[in-house]
Write a structure and sequence with these properties.
Elements: H1 11-16, E1 20-24, E2 29-34, H2 42-51, E3 56-59, E4 64-65, E5 68-69, E6 85-87, E7 92-101, E8 105-114, E9 120-128, H3 140-152, E10 164-166, H4 173-190, H5 197-205, H6 215-230, H7 238-253, H8 261-266, H9 279-283, H10 324-338, H11 340-399
Parallel strand pairs: 2-10, 3-9, 3-10
Antiparallel strand pairs: 1-2, 4-5, 6-7, 7-8, 8-9
Helix pairs in contact: 3-6, 4-6, 10-11
Length: about 400
């Protein structure tokens, strides 16, 4: 029986604080999944932990993500009695006694006091700090190491109260954690051949709808379960795993800086640059193999892009697609690369394309002129019709 009750008058808190406890018999697991507490629900959050005899909180989100506050900072920020948080509405107080930071998660030890009876309990918090909202970790290795640390603490054992697991909404990252944990327990007890991840997820959704929000999160569950079952092998190399975890997390959080710009400018090229051609040498180009000074292929001409949208219909002057200098350059390059036949074909295609575009512009201008002419007739006709209608009405009124 609950010591404290949330009354019906606290509708504001009730509509934003929706914890859900469920258990999975095959895995012998119990969890309480909830949203991240807000400023006006923090007291009831700690009250739930006290009533359910919870030993641990699993926090899978940061307080601030993408410049948005995902949940309220519900624990003291400094160690000691002087920084304790007191919740007078539920007669509870929280003191931070110990904090330990790892590269991708943190652990904290709280002392939760009942101000009326003076009783106190130790509450652990496991805070995963590198899991993006609506996303997944880059690798299941770090997540599985975090899960191992949580399991070794004994807070998931059914002998104690159910752990409280929360992220922002309490269904995405929280559901991913529960699904991976339950599937690994089932695989260890019954064998991987008797594990069906889809059926396990559907059974969990009977207790809390919406678990696993994105396809990436479900895909990550499969990857984590596959990787986790490998660890059941007694020959699994744990030392190599530890090294790969720390290397992976380090690269994710601190990417290497780019090389300094000054170094790239002063660095000598790998091979000497080719000589700049003169106009005289361009006139004597020869494509024979013996006259070639380099084994490299000649550079390809720059790609010619045509604008998908022509100029507006009001523009009277049609600009050619290529200037005289540009077309001359293309012809010269084509001449010595492909021969006169290819050059003539490209010239003809260019002219045909220019003619089609000019015709499209001309038709657009003619259509615009015709619409403008029709619009010019609408106003006088409307005025004339209005006068006739008014005259008929006046004549009918006077006659009668």
């Amino acid at each position: 029986m609950c010591k404290y009750q949330i009354s019906d008058s606290d509708c504001t808190c009730c509509c934003r604080f929706d914890p859900k406890q469920f258990h999975l018999d095959r895995a012998n697991r119990r969890y309480i999944l909830t949203q991240g507490p807000l400023a006006f629900t923090v007291g009831h959050f700690w009250l739930m932990i006290w009533e359910q005899n919870t030993k641990a909180i699993l926090m899978l989100n940061k307080v601030i993500e993408k410049n948005e506050i995902k949940c309220h900072w519900y624990w003291p920020q400094d160690i000691g009695e002087a920084h304790k948080m007191t919740f007078n509405d539920v007669k509870l107080a929280v003191v931070l006694e110990k904090e330990e930071d790892c590269c991708y998660y943190s652990t904290r030890l709280f002392k939760l006091y009942d101000l009326e009876s003076g009783e106190s309990r130790d509450i652990m918090q496991f805070h995963y700090t590198t899991w993006p909202d609506f996303g997944v970790p880059t690798s299941p290795n770090a997540f599985l190491q975090f899960l191992k640390r949580v399991r070794e603490s004994g807070v998931l054992d059914p002998t104690d109260g159910p752990p409280v697991i929360h992220c922002s909404a309490g269904i995405g990252r929280s559901g991913t954690f529960c699904l991976v944990d339950c599937c690994l327990v089932i695989a260890e007890k019954e064998g991987i051949q008797n594990l069906n991840i889809q059926e396990t997820l559907l059974e969990m959704r009977h207790h809390r709808m919406g678990l696993i929000q994105t396809p990436d999160q479900l895909r990550f569950c499969y990857q984590a379960v596959i990787e986790g079952t490998k660890r059941l092998d007694p020959n699994y190399d744990e030392d190599e795993l530890e090294e790969s975890i720390y290397v992976m997390v380090g690269e994710e959080e601190a990417p290497p800086p780019p090389p300094p710009r000054a170094e790239s400018l002063t660095r000598a090229p790998a091979r000497p640059l080719p000589a700049i051609p003169t106009s005289e040498s361009l006139g004597n180009l020869n494509l024979t193999q013996q006259d070639s000074s380099s084994d490299e292929d000649p550079p390809t001409p720059p790609s010619r892009t045509y604008s998908s949208s022509a100029s507006s219909a009001d523009d009277e002057d049609d600009e050619p697609f290529f200037s005289v200098a540009e077309s001359h350059v293309y012809i010269d390059i084509d001449d010595f690369c492909h021969g006169s036949e290819t050059t003539e074909l490209r010239r003809r295609r260019t002219r045909e394309l220019a003619d089609r575009v000019s015709a499209m512009k001309r038709k657009a201008r003619e259509a615009e002129r015709w619409h403008a002419l029709k619009r010019s007739f609408y106003k006088p006709l409307t005025i004339t019709f209005g006068f006739i209608l008014a005259g008929i009405i006046i004549y009918t009124y006077v006659k009668h």
